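New to this. Please check this protein:
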Amino acid sequence: MGAAFLLVAVAGFAWLIVGFNRLVRLKNQVENGWRQIDVQLKRRHDLIPGLVDAVRGALEFEQDTLEKVAAARNTAVAARGMAATADAENALTQALRQLAAVVEAYPELRGTQNVLQLQEELTTTENQIGFARQHYNDVTMRFNTQQEVFPSNIIARFFGFAPADLFSATIEDRTVPSVQLSLRPES
């Protein structure tokens, strides 16, 4: 009787350890996924001033667009926490889309090597951000699911694990930005 009880206790303790360790691994993967997004966002933040400076002279009459990009970048850099960062980055994405639309409307800008290179780097970074967000959502989904399924939900509740937030597209991400171009003054 005592040996059976000891065997059940050891098996229960082993189950607890395995379940706890699985949740910790998934939590760490979620945190790593967020850090990967953060790295790509930093890269994007570093590229934006160069792009704005490269088009500033040619777009003197589009200062409003450039100011919106700069303001959105500053807000994104200052954002803390996942929800605030996601909101700020979504606003920055919208501002960058408007800037890209403005650049597309001016052939003299599209042909500038510096602008082309910066746009290419920004496009690559945007793709990397998308992949990082997808990876983050994948590991977050596994982490959240593990907390909901029986019997690991008992371990998750007991040790205070909390679900992580997923990145999701905002209404603005799903709509095409409208751009109002100023008419270039006649020279």
